[in-house]
Design brief:
The chain has 223 residues and is of the alpha/beta class. It has one domain: Rossmann fold (3-Layer(aba) Sandwich). The protein is built from ten helices and eight strands. The chain has a six-stranded parallel β-sheet with strand order 2-1-3-4-7-8, sandwiched between helices. The protein has a two-stranded antiparallel sheet with strand order 5-6.
């Protein structure tokens, strides 16, 4: 496998691409070209198109990385001819016809507030403990107050044909995640045939452990 220079990072729900800053710094320091997708998270179909537009601009192969809901996005956008491999960072990995909504596991549900005009938010007070438990209080509070409303149509949008059936994939499992519990992550990773790497971290592991996330992406890019 020829080493890959381009890395495309796709964020999840309730947040935007700025959460990838630590991973971006790690990878660009190594000379990799990193591209941050800023999805509006209104619908899965729209976010797939937005991600594909970023891939269209590349002049060579790329590793496509998705965090959380971004995993659903890369599962469809990963069919793009520039994509050589997929990396799920505590992400949803839907199969044919599945949506993120269908993959949310049983047990105590995340503190998602009732939809308003078709968009969802997490309860501000409970955001840190569920999404960002291993981040400093001030950082977690800022994330809670700067949430991006997540469209119900994005949550419920089905994946037609998962790219993990046609591309090699890796899965970074966050052992302290409450949004997507580790057993659910493991089930999706095993179903996708992904190589699994475990990291001690919350759902915001890409922010709290950027070096560990970047190290996995770096290894995938190097082939």
């Amino acid at each position: 496998m020829i080493p890959v220079r381009d890395i495309v990072l796709v964020h999840g729900g309730f947040v935007d691409g700025s959460g990838w800053r630590g991973v971006y710094d790690e990878l660009t320091w190594d000379g990799l070209r990193v591209h941050i997708v800023q999805n509006p998270t209104r619908s899965l179909a729209d976010d797939i198109r937005t991600t594909r537009r970023v891939l269209d601009r590349l002049d060579g192969p790329a590793v496509l990385v998705g965090h959380s809901y971004g995993g659903a996005v890369i599962s469809e956008a990963g069919h793009h001819p520039n994509v050589t491999s997929l990396v799920y960072v505590t992400g949803f990995a839907p199969d044919r016809g599945e949506s993120v909504d269908a993959l949310i596991p049983g047990g105590p549900p995340p503190p998602i507030l009732p939809p308003v005009e078709g968009f969802l938010l997490l309860d501000r007070e409970r955001f840190p403990g569920w999404f960002a438990a291993d981040l400093p209080d001030q950082v977690a509070a800022f994330m809670a107050d700067s949430q991006v409303p997540w469209g119900v149509d994005a949550l419920r949008g089905p994946v037609a044909e998962p790219a993990w059936r046609h591309r090699p994939s890796w899965y970074l499992l966050a052992t302290e995640d409450r949004m997507i519990p580790p057993p659910a992550q493991r089930r999706m990773a095993e179903r996708a045939g992904s190589t699994v790497v475990e990291v001690i971290g919350s759902h915001a592991v890409h922010i709290s452990q950027p070096a560990a996330v970047a190290d996995l992406i770096r290894q995938v890019a190097a082939g």
